[in-house]
Design brief:
148 residues, single chain, elongated, mainly alpha
C-alpha cells in the first residue's frame, strides 16, 4: 500500500474476527485459550478455554449469543462485532485504526465536546481517519520524488 493507508481487513467469519481481535488486542503476543478464558472470567463472563481454541481453529462457526457476549467482554468490544453480517465491524475496525495511529504518534490529540461515556461516535472516528489520510496524501514523499 503506497499511501500508508491501512485497509480494513475482510472480516466475514467468526474465526477471522477473533484472529483479528487477538492480533489487535494483544499485539506481538500469543494468547492461549486458558489466558483468554481467565480474562473473560475476570470481566464477569464465562468461556471455556477449549471453546475459545475451537473458535480459533474454525471448528465453531455459529456460537450462542452468550458466547459472543463473552468474546466481547474478553476483547473489550461490542459483542455484536462477532455476529454474522455485523453492523459494528466497520466501527470497531475504525476505532482500532484510530487507536493504532494514536499509539504511533500519527495522531497526537483530539478534543471532543459533549461526549458521553461511550466516547467518540464511529462516524467521528472515521472522519478523523479520513482527515489524517488526506493530510498524509498532501505531504510530499521524504525522498522528494512525486507519488505514483
Amino acid at each position: 500500500m503506497d499511501s500508508g493507508e491501512e485497509r480494513a481487513p475482510e472480516l466475514r467469519t467468526l474465526r477471522q474476527k477473533v484472529e483479528y481481535m487477538v492480533e489487535k488486542t494483544f499485539p506481538g503476543r500469543k494468547i492461549s485459550g486458558r489466558v483468554f478464558a481467565d480474562l473473560v472470567k475476570e470481566r464477569g463472563g464465562s468461556l471455556s478455554h477449549s471453546y475459545f481454541s475451537n473458535i480459533l481453529a474454525g471448528k465453531v462457526t455459529q456460537p450462542s449469543e452468550e458466547i459472543l457476549k463473552a468474546l466481547g467482554l474478553g476483547f473489550g468490544v461490542d459483542w455484536r462485532f462477532f455476529k454474522e453480517e455485523s453492523e459494528v465491524v466497520d466501527d470497531v475496525v475504525a476505532g482500532l485504526q484510530f487507536l493504532a495511529k494514536r499509539r504511533t504518534g500519527e495522531i497526537d490529540g483530539l478534543a471532543g465536546r459533549g461526549l458521553d461515556e461511550e466516547g467518540l461516535p464511529p462516524e467521528l472516528l472515521q472522519f478523523a481517519l479520513a482527515l489524517l489520510q488526506d493530510a498524509q496524501d498532501r505531504q510530499p514523499p521524504a525522498d522528494g520524488e512525486p507519488r505514483s
